[in-house]
Design brief:
alpha/beta; globular; 22% helix; 30 strands; single chain; five-stranded parallel sheet; 10 helices; FAD/NAD(P)-binding domain
Length: 423
């Protein structure tokens, strides 16, 4: 097989953006490897609108958004290899692939960009008591059945989990003629975007009950109903609140897990909180020449941010190919005081060529708070919002000149407004 300067594993929005940005940065010999029969990733089944508001300043459906990058790809010399499965990735960047045309083959590019996306957490991970009837789906699988395959999946539904895909599927089922009896969330807050709560639940009078879970599944051949219950502070069901709800469909929207099996095979270090690789500001992992972006790095809520991060990784990979150098990673990044994580976790301050975007999430709902970025006692940035929500990713940009040549710890902290003002 022909060897390439850069190989991108994954042809979703992150992978496409990475390939296009690397091409614009001067590397022309690029391959995108996609296991599906066409590029676009999850966007191909997201037929609702709401994509592209930040990147294109207009509202697009998922397929429309993906089509823009696919068309841009066709105007380049970038190769796209679909229906190709990557089965192994080695630390020396050797990629083992297989498809029906070439059989089993290997590629060894100078740089690799990981853009494999994420998968849904299934019922098996929840250990929900009950039988195993038909009618229990992950929300993403139900979305594909309805939007791509054209199947109806049920008439009376309950949705467990209030992530964005669960909220969107509540609306989709309603528009299809099904009755959604409720969305149940085990946490005391929703994990979805506020706009999706308004547009997908409130506009269709679908109830959202927080601090509730599905305690048992009923039915033999087909789902007959579920028992829901309120949970206590330890997230255990409260027996006296158990209630049976008849339904023939249960959708699980209980979280996404970055697809990092290939990353682990290559020896990439993973962050326990994000479940994605530990990266620097160029999105390079601890393995030289291997970069990561999109949902394989951290679970995003906006595809615009996925594309932005893919572009960062693409430029980083191009720079590595054209001007290889040793990373120093003089700056360690961490979050505290209510922040779940911060990405990137490292900064190579000797090679800063552009402003750095730091992404983070809070671990609860916070009001009257600010997020400060502090380096060696100096406040570099302050982020103010009316309310910080776990379902909405936070993006803080710090200018390159503020970080260049610095070392130590860059600390992002959630603080009271008065405490931040004193700094």
């Amino acid at each position: 097989m022909k060897n390439y300067d850069i190989a991108v594993i994954g042809g979703g929005p992150a992978g496409l953006a990475a390939a296009l940005s690397a091409y614009e940065a001067g590397v022309k010999d690029i391959l995108v490897i996609e296991r599906d029969d066409k590029a676009g990733g999850i966007l191909n089944q997201c037929i609702h609108n709401g994509f592209g508001l930040h990147r294109f300043s207009e509202e697009l459906t998922g397929p429309e958004y993906a089509d823009r990058d696919v068309k841009a790809l066709k105007n380049t010399t970038i190769d796209l290899m679909t229906e190709t499965m990557v089965v192994n990735l080695q630390s020396d960047r050797t990629i083992h692939c297989m498809n029906k045309t070439n059989g089993y083959f290997t590629i060894k590019p100078q740089a690799v960009v990981l853009a494999m996306g994420c998968r849904e957490r299934t019922r098996g991970a929840l250990n929900t008591p009950g039988s195993r009837p038909a009618g229990v789906f992950t929300a993403g699988a139900a979305q594909r059945f309805m939007n791509v395959e054209g199947y109806g999946i049920g008439r009376e539904a309950v949705i467990l989990g209030s992530g964005d895909i669960g909220l969107i599927m509540a609306r989709r089922l309603t528009l299809q003629g099904a009755h959604v009896k409720g969305v149940y969330e085990i946490m005391p807050y929703s994990n979805g975007l506020n706009r999706n709560i308004v547009q997908c639940l409130n506009d269709y009078d679908i109830p959202l009950k927080t601090s509730h879970t599905v305690a048992q599944i009923h039915g033999e051949k087909r789902l007959e109903g579920v028992t829901v219950a309120q949970v206590d502070s330890a997230l255990n069901p409260i027996e006296e609140t158990r209630e049976f709800i008849s339904c023939d469909t249960l959708l699980l929207a209980v979280g996404l897990i970055p697809e990092n099996e290939l990353s682990a095979l290559a020896g990439v270090k993973l962050d326990a909180k994000t479940r994605g690789p530990i990266v620097d500001q160029k999105r390079q992992t601890n393995i030289e020449g291997i970069f990561a972006c999109g949902n394989v790095l951290q679970v995003h809520d906006l595809v615009d941010n996925v594309s932005q991060e893919g572009a960062i990784a693409g430029r980083g990979a191009a720079r590595y190919v054209l001007h290889p150098s040793d990373d120093q990673n003089d700056l360690i990044v961490r979050g505290e005081g209510g922040l779940s994580y911060v990405v990137p976790q490292l900064v190579d301050t000797s090679s800063l060529e552009e402003d750095t975007h730091f992404y983070m999430r809070v671990n609860n709902v916070y009001e009257k708070k600010v997020i400060t970025a502090t380096l060696n006692g100096e406040v570099l940035a302050v982020k103010r919002e009316r309310k910080f929500l776990p379902g909405e990713m936070i993006d803080i940009k710090i200018a390159a000149q503020k970080l260049a040549g610095k070392s130590g710890e860059l600390i992002f902290a959630l603080q009271e407004i008065n405490a931040a003002a004193k700094q």
